[in-house]
Amino acid sequence: MDSLLKLTLTRRELLKAGAASAAAAAAPSVAFAQAPDEPGRSPVMTKVAFEVNGKPETLELDTRTSLLDALREHLHLTGTKKGCDHGQCGACTVMVDGRRINACLTLAVMHEGDRITTIEGLGTPDKLHPMQAAFIKHDGYQCGYCTPGQICSAVAMLGEINSGVPSLVSEKLTARPKPSAEEIRERMSGNICRCGAYSNIVDAITEVAGRSA
Length: 213
Ligand code: FES
Ligand code: FES
Known about the structure:
By secondary structure, the protein is α+β, with helices and mostly antiparallel strands. The relative contact order is 0.11. Helix 3 (130-137) packs across helix 6. The protein is 41% helix and 13% strand. The chain has a five-stranded mixed beta sheet with strand order 2-1-5-3-4, with helices on both faces.
C-alpha cells in the first residue's frame, strides 16, 4: 500500500513537473512571436549589397525585409508583382544567379553579393526579350498581373531543361528532358494565372523553346 501511495505521488509530481517544463518551453516562442509588436523596440537595420539587372545596389534595410519588398519598395522595380506574399502564386518570381525563386519567400539580407534579374532586366520596350515578344505574339496574358513572374519563370525554366534538370513528369532522370507541353505545364505549375491564359502561355514558351533548342 505504502509503495502504491508513493508511486501515485511520484506520478503526480511527474505530471506537475511535465506541465511546468512544457510551459517553460512554450514561453520563449510566445515571447519571440510578440517581439516585433513591442512598443519602442527598434528594427534591426543592416546593409546589403547585390547586383540588380546588372547594376550594383546597396541598401540599408530592416533585416525582416523580403527580397520582394526590397525590389518594389526600395528600388522601385514594380514590374515584379506581389500576389499572395506567401509563396503560392508565383507573381513575385525573379532570377537569382540564373535560378528562379519566389522573392516573397526570401529575405533581402540573404542575397549579399547575388546577381538578381527582374522583368525589367530581361528586355526593354525597344528590345524585348524573345520570351516577352512571344507572350505578346501568342496573347499569353489578359490582365497581365501574373505575366512578369510567368516570363521570369519561363526563361529560367528553359534554362533548367537545357541543363538537363528532370521534373516530376520526365520519363528518365538521366536523359535530357524535352520541352514538351507536359513538361512546360508541370514546371510552370508554381505560377498561377487567375485569368486562365495558360494555353497561350504554353504556346509562347513552346515557341521560344523551339527557337533555343
Ligand atoms: S507573391 Fe510571392 S508567390 Fe505569391
Ligand atoms: S493574365 Fe491575369 S492573372 Fe494571368
